[in-house]
Each structure stands twice: as C-alpha cells, then as structure tokens.
Amino acid sequence: MGYHIYGIGNALVDKEFEVDDAFFNDAGIEKGMMTLIEADQLASMLEILTSRYGLKKRACGGSAANTIIGASYFGANAFYTCNVANDEAGDFYIADMKAAGVDTNMGDDRDEGVTGKCLVMVTPDAERTMNTHLGITSELHQNHINEDALAQSEYAYIEGYLVTSDPSRAAAIQVRELARKHGVKVAMTFSDPAMVQFFKDGVKEMIGDGVDLLFCNEQEAKLYADTDSLDDAIDAIKKVAKTFAITLGSKGALAFDGETLHEIAPNAVTAVDSNGAGDMFAGAFLYAITHGHDFAAAGRLASAASSKVVSQFGPRLDAEQHEPLKSVL
Predict the structure, then answer these.
(1) Rg (the chain; Cα; Å)
(2) Which residues, 6+ apart, have CB-to-CB distance to 125 below 8 Å?
(3) Which CATH number does the domain housing residue 33 bear?
(4) Cα separation of 99 and 104, whole Å?
(5) Who contacts 261 (Cβ-Cβ below 8 Å, separation ≥6)?
(6) What are the respective helix, strand and coil percentages of the chain, to the nearest 5?
(7) Which letter does DSSP use for residue 272 in this model?
(8) Is the pLDDT at 1 greater than 80, yes or no?
(9) Is the pLDDT assigned to residue 313 strictly greater than 70?
C-alpha cells in the first residue's frame, strides 16, 4: 500500500495551559513565539504552570505530526518519521499516532532518553506561545528515515522546525533528496516566524533547489523575502516553490497552483486557541490535493478546517469532526 503523505518532523508531547498576559511578564517569556528551553527550565516552568493554571490538555504534537494526523483523519494514508524515547511520554505518543491511523518508524526498540515536550500557553486573545524542550527529537537522524515508505508516497512533507538541530536538518535534507530520487513531490512548511528570522540560512539549505509546495503565513513570507510587501514576498517565494499556500490569518489565505493565485475566503469564527491552525491548514490542503481536488477546493477545506481548530481548545480536531467539513469540497 502506498502513502499519500510521508511526513518528517519533531515529536513532542504538547501540554496546554490557559494563561494570562501577566504571566509572560512575570516569567520573561516572549509572547507569540516558539522558544527552545533546557530540561531544568522545562521542569520549573511545568511546576509553575501546573500549580498556577492547571493542565488543560495533553496530546502528541509537533507541527508536522498535527498536519499528518489531520490528513489521516480526513482519509489520507500517512507515514510519520520522528524520534521519541523509551519513556512513558514516548509510549503515549506512539499510541496516540496509532489511534489516528498513522504509521511511524518507531517501535518498541526506542532509545533511552527523554521524549520532547512542548508547553503551549494560550492567552484570552487566542494566541499561542510555546516553550519547547526538544529532548530526544533533536536527535532525529537520517537512519530514522524509511526510504521504502517515502518512495511509495505522493508527497514528502518537511517541517521547518527541524532547522534548529544539525542532525534533524540533515535528515530533512536527506528526505528532500530521496524524494527527488524517487519522483516524490516535496512539500515544506516554514513552521514559525522565528525559524525564518533566526535560522534563515538553514531554512534555505532545507529548501535547496526548490520545493513543489510551500506552506507559510504572511509574516513568515515577508521575513523570508526581507520585505514589508506581500506582493514582493510572493515573488520571492515563486522562485523557490512551484506552488504554495500563504495563510493570512483573519483575512483568509492565498493558494498558487503554478498558474493562478486563488484567494481563499476566511471563515468567521470566535477564536479560542490558535495552536495548530497552520498545521491543520496544511493537513487538510494535502488531503484535498492528493484526492483529486484543485487548489481552490483544497484552500476551502483548509480554511474551514483551520477555523474549526481555532474555535476550540487544543491543536487538533476529534476524528468525527473531519468528515462533515468535506462538504465544502
């Protein structure tokens, strides 16, 4: 059996908390960004957050994992390459993936270590701020890649967050090269403005001679192109991506199919938690284009699905929430 999507990305157990803006001032955390932290910082932050706010939700996460699970719930066959440790969080992660119908490279012979964790802090304005301890996922190596699964996939999907660790970045580049070798299309996401801002050289290395499909938001596109103009950013992205989708927050999205730039209308919702919106956009989009739909239809599904995600707490929808969304196709 072949796969529609072969993903590679970080494997993190998300712990979500509802916090207030004052917390960021007290803790000296930059709001709205993803920041990498060490194990000791994770432990003290977790203690403060749990005692002050209480844990709201736990889920297996990582940007590409959310994308792949979303696509799988819509009906795509998907494979995910990642690295979790031989610990309780790792067991939880693999079980969560299996429950979502996603095949992975992880078995019972996992390495000793600590499975990566992400503290997701959501404020009343629905913005998400993340502090991430990568743990063993920063040791995502080329030997974790399953070339057979990749070779029989329609799209390889590469997570931009992999840029922060040398082995992970090398593994991402290897996936791109193997995809090219086997005639598999390459999709990539910039993942986060911080990746483009602080790791731009590494991001360019991951893009290499270009990708078939790029996902990003407006801020990431402008940072990549070093411009305040969305039009200029689009021109810059056309040089490295044959097709792309740029999310514009409450203004909807743009999807370029190689010839036409489609304007995707937004869905009016009351935002509760923006965590996972971009991931779901990509998952829904990839499901649609691997199931015979054009970019305009894919954009409609992606917009509807991501607006549904922001209207509730947590980075993903429940399995049964996906099928009704397909009516927009």
Answers:
(1) 18
(2) 271
(3) 3.40.1190.20
(4) 12
(5) 234, 254, 255
(6) 45, 20, 30
(7) S
(8) no
(9) yes
Specify burial of residue 128 (Cβ count, 10 A radius: 0-12, 13-18, 19+): buried
Question: Rounded distance, CA 246 to CA 303, Å?
Answer: 11
The parent domain of residue 199 ranges over: 3-328
Amino acid identity of 325? Answer: L
Could you tell me the two tokens for 130? 């993340």
How many residues make up the chain in this entry? 329
Q: Is the pLDDT of residue 273 over 90?
A: no
Instruction: Give the tens place of pLDDT for each residue, 182-198.
Output: 999 999 999 999 999 99
Tokens at 114, concatenated = 């600590």
pLDDT at 314 over 90: no
Q: How far apart are CA 268 and CA 281, in angstroms?
A: 15
pTM comes to 0.94
| Residues β-bridged to residue 34 | 130
The sheet that has 12-18: what strands, in order across it? 34-36, 128-133, 116-122, 12-18, 57-61
Number of domains in the chain: 1
Q: Rounded distance, CA 271 to CA 124, Å?
A: 9
